[in-house]
Design brief:
Radius of gyration: 20 Å
Largest sheet: 7 strands, mixed
Strand content: 25-35%
Structural class: alpha/beta
Number of strands: 14
Order of helices and strands: EHEEEHEHEEHEHEEEHEHEEH
Distance between the termini: 25 Å
Number of helices: 8
Amino acid sequence: MDLVLDELKVFSGNGHPELTQAVCDYLDIPVGQSEAFKFANDNTFVRILENIRQRDVFLIQPTCAPTNDNLMELLIMIDACKRASAGRITAVIPYYGYGRTDKKDQPRVPITGRLVADLITAAGADRVLTIDLHAGQIQGFFNIPVDELTAMPILTNYIKTKEISDLVVVAVDIGISKRARDVAERLNAPLAIIEKRRLGNNDRSETLNVIGDVEGKAALTFDDEILTGGTVIHAADALIDAGVTEVYCCATHPVFSVEAPARLAKSKFQEVVVADTVPVPSNKRNGKITVLSVASLLGEAIYRIHKGNSVGELFNI
């Protein structure tokens, strides 16, 4: 092991300990010893169980459901490390909760994505490492360095192994079209876009139109996350109606609601490919869902940050 790693400490919250273990396996170091639990009064308690004075500390905690519990636990972990005199604290947030609330799109509503950024900074984090933010401007909500990774190479490399002929990549809405275009370039495929209109604040959307030539092709829908599955399922239906021969789905964050796996199982998708930025327990998996690990991506980024090397060069290959 590189001796520099002796100063590196990686700790896990309760949000995704399996991913933390996989990251530490990649780095060939043990998971840092800590405990985090709730008292009978519902207050969260965190304790670091080993010396981290002047160490380079990384805290892995996606702020997925239960979002508020995981977020509060992350903030308390940061504070505990700060008060234990950690040399540097990096909040590793594979999935950034509240990322959808990134702007005022209605009167008298919050920008919670900015509020969460302020909380993480105020708690004492020195930098943030995350994967595929819902909106790029979230990086600007922070006054500390933010490294945003992307699971796109992992997802597209898997799709390449399928050797799907006559493929077209489909952005499920106009907002994700830039990232979908990058996916299309990696797969050497054309791009189409689903035009949709969101209906209120109840996670429902209405698919309107398919923009692009998709007839007779195999389609790969792309989005940053799946919650209820409604958006991608409606997109699949619209594509089949437009003459697509088969449909695959690709997304980074499987933020599955309770009903999402069953809905995806009954959908017209051949396969739904996601990353493990949030836990996908066995009861949320079915024959159509494939989960790919981001442990090596996070592990390599953590190693590069620790060594002072470029993180961006990860994606120049």
